[in-house]
Amino acid sequence: MATKLESMDKNSIIGLLVIGALLVGYMLITAPSKEEKAEMKRKQDSIAQVEHQRDSLERVQRDIIAQQEDSISKATDSVPVISDTLSIEQKDSIESLALASKYGTFKDAATGTEEFLVIENEKMIITLTNRGGKVYSVELKDYKTYYQEPLILFVNDSASVFGLELMADGKPLITNDMYFVPTTDADTIKTDGKEVKASMRLEASKDKYIEFLYTVKPDEYMIDFDINIVGLKSEIDANPYVTLRWNSKIPGLERGRDWESNNTTIFMRMTDDEIEKLGETKAKDDFDSSGAIKWIAYKQQFFSSVLIAKNKLDNPTVSLTKIEDKESKYLKNFNSEFTFDLNDSDNQSQNFSFYFGPNKFSTLKQYDLKLEKVVPLGWGIFGWVNRFLIIPIFNWLGGFISNFGIIILLLTLIIKIILFPLTYKSSMSSAKMRVLKPQIDALSAKFPKGKEMEKQQATMALYKKAGASPMGGCLPMLIQFPILIAMFRFFPASIELRQQSFLWANDLSTYDAIVEWSGNIPLISSMYGNHISLFTLLMAISMLISTIMTSANQPQNNSMPGMKYMMYLMPVMMIFWFNKYSSGLSYYYFLANLITILQTWIIQKFIIDEKKVLAQMEAKKKTVKPKSKWQQRLEEAAKMQQQRAKK
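-> structure tokens emitted (647 positions)
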């Protein structure tokens, strides 16, 4: 018995040792490399530093507020009429001490009067403000709002933020609230065919400052924006991380608040070249990453404000909030913040660019920064169809035709001509199925219930001999589907249609209203809208006629009776879906349906002779064709199944 116990103990010990050795080996194999450990430590240090900086900012702000409240309380208790007993010099001295306590070396920049500097080139008017040294507003000269007012992308009022947040001399410094000093005395600067620069400096002294340098080129939507930090190494050396914050309210510029809001969002290009996007239709959405971005775009329906980093911006935290107040002139609040680290130098720069301009595919693509991704042309094959087929044809037609209603008509004709072989093949397949229907019905009557397998084999054999296929009409239509979806994405995203009128539609980029009302009608106003779009009605009617013609020429499918009613219900649903959409899109589908109706009528009336088709199919049935190996295998499998059933 003792021997058995000793043997068991030895086996247990050996087993434990083996398991321990396996665990140690697994830990050694899966342990991160030195490079991976260093990268993990760097990320942890970065995150810790950012959190420490935020905590420091909040703590210092709380301390300052507490000190000010305590000072005010003491002053009130001890000297009730201090304001009446102090001279102007004494008041200024106390105020200066308070500013020095709060802002340190930047105390002189804490107060001032807001002034503006305007920079103008051929495409835009950029207004800078000394309060925060930031871009106050941007007006695009070649465009107007839907209501023909000056098109101003945004206004950085007191509720907006653009600037740096950092620690200087152990005190929180938020540049958005400080007063910069312009290095020019001019109120307005024009490019006049040459590059101009405008500098705003947040000065601690003449040789210690934070500079926002703007470089504007003639006839360009892109401007350079450099942040230069000069002579402040000792003041910010202990806090090398800087936060860049950008908060902005996005105004409505187009007709149709809901539609414009649903096309207004934030895009980001990450350093791995992936494009991230916040949800357009969500009331709130956010994005938080420990990665880095190359650019961030505050994208409106047809225009964008883009901040582009020449290097990168780390730890992006981005969010949007929809403004529910229907009376507000703003659609959404966009908020973002990032970090970047400063190098160990007394003079250093961070280089950026701003793009303020239209979401025009060709304009954005020329910068080779993937900015064209903000134009929603569709994913995968739908985007390819737009980029390589629709846009080239559209631009080619626009080169010599100014009326965009005519351009859409010609574009529709060209697409329909390209697709005509598929349309003809689909119609021919439907004709073959129609003339074969009596024979199919005869086969169905020949095989009683319980002989479905034999009936199916006989039907497929008939199709094969006659050269027909029940899927022959579906495949050509399926090939056309990517173009249908591509156009659905193309027209609402085309700035070329913006404010282009045709017939009764005064703007092909938005809905055409022949009747409008202001009151809210439950369900109707929310689902349909407070207007009636005539192009949408015409599209639905033409779609219904096309459906009736197509159904009349299709063999009846008794196995799916609900499909017929679904096809008739579709035009009614389209009225609700498309009433708020681009009238250019409804106009295109209306034209496409009209041409389809015309093509169907011509093909059935003059091209396809069903008697001739039947004669050709009967002649083909008499031609003996060798069976393929696949068909032979199917027949053998069917025979084996029948034999098993008999047994």
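Residues 1-8, 71-82 have pLDDT under 50 and may be disordered.
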